[in-house]
Amino acid sequence: MSSNFLTEPAVAPDLHIPHSPHTVDVRVLDAGTLLHLKPGLFYEPALDGFEAQHVPTYCFLISHGDRHVVFDLGVRQDWENSAPKLVSLVREAAMITRGSDIATLLNEDAERHEKGGGSGPELGIRPRDVEAIVWSHNHFDHTGDPSTFPPTTPLVLGPGVRAASWPGYPTNPESMMLDSDIAGGRPIQEISFQAGEKGHVRIGRFDAFDYFGDGSFYLLDAPGHAVGHMCGLARTTADPPSFVLMGADSCHHIGVLRPTAYLPLPRDGPSLQGLETRAQTTQTTPCPCPGELLASLTKTGQPDRSFFDVAKGPYFLDHEQSMDTVGKLQELDASDEVFIVIAHDHTLRDRMPLFPEKVNDWRERGLSSSTRWLFLKEFEAVIAKRAAES
């Protein structure tokens, strides 16, 4: 075998992304809020030694010339002012560390720009300059506080989200949403992914909507986790083409996506350093290569199957649809043209440029190849525990 993979990679499928000379600028927004995610609740199986994680929630600013769209708003800074039923659930789960919010990030950057005192690429974009807010879905860690944007700023939603969300609290005391999210007559645009309708295209096996109408930014129909769940796909360079895939909550750990038949586990490499040593400290017999140790942890014990599935239970509305969406994403993940950022992938946090910097040059930076297997280091304790027990 000529590659460093444990098994020969399968040929990645053709995604058939339409050609376009048009691009958008993509900036990753991280407002600093951390969520406490427990293995077994959001992805399974739980592995002995694999601990709960504190993860960010990534949002995105997509700029098409002087047109700006925000993809997700994260957690509202004053989350205690959310609907009472939601507040009760968050407090019970003790799952949040407070951060800022997206409107504040934009305003602070704009103030630096206006004062001319910043040292970075300040943009001067305020919430009033954003033409639309796209919600990937209607969960609290993505919906933020739309009232921090003008009431004329539309909400762009996936199919069925409006009916599933409103009326909110206080009109409906049991709602997780707020009436104030759409107060003031805020316009709502619900995306249709029906074939034959204006803007409909196919991206890989996804039904997609061409948001700007020129192939620069697509919304993808990615159901399963929640009603109307969507991903985003932004063209960051035209020739050669490259894309950033905004995975939202298609999964909550990158080990749900990897490895695959297209991206099997590596035999060794920088991301695996320390795994073999960790295991050898607890046994006297020679250890296999790090990749083989890790393969024993995958769902099937094989190097071309992912570590986790999305969990069955309340956090994924439709498990079968969720797994189908994961399968479609895995095909995009296999492409060298696509850099996937799921909303809660903490391994990327200190590696990729954050707002106000652009992430368009991700390929030149080698971000995809250098971060693809970083999550494997999280399994050191699992390997050591199993080695000690063998």
Show the helix and strand layout.
Elements (H helix, E strand, L loop, with lengths): L24 E6 L3 E4 L5 E2 L8 E3 L2 E7 L2 E5 L12 H10 L2 E2 L4 H14 L14 E5 L5 H4 L11 E3 L3 H5 L22 E3 L9 E4 L2 E5 L6 E5 L8 E9 L2 E8 L26 H6 L9 H6 L13 E2 L8 H15 L4 E5 L19 H4 L1 H5 L8 H10 L1
Parallel strand pairs: 6-8, 8-9, 9-10, 15-17
Antiparallel strand pairs: 1-5, 2-4, 2-7, 3-16, 5-6, 11-12, 12-13, 13-14, 14-15
Protein name: Beta-lactamase-like protein
Keywords: Hydrolase, Metal-binding, Zinc
Pfam family, one: Lactamase_B
| Overall residue-averaged pLDDT value | 91
Any idea how many domains? 1
Low-confidence stretches: none
CATH domain class name:
Alpha Beta
Largest beta sheet: strand ordering: 1-5-6-8-9-10
Structural category is alpha+beta
- Silhouette: globular
Question: Would you identify the CATH H-level superfamily?
Answer: Ribonuclease Z/Hydroxyacylglutathione hydrolase-like
- Main beta sheet: 6 strands, mixed
**What distance lies between the first and last C-alpha atoms, to the nearest angstrom?**
30 Å
Which key features would you list for this structure?
single chain, 390 residues, alpha+beta, Metallo-beta-lactamase, Chain A, six-stranded mixed sheet, 10 helices
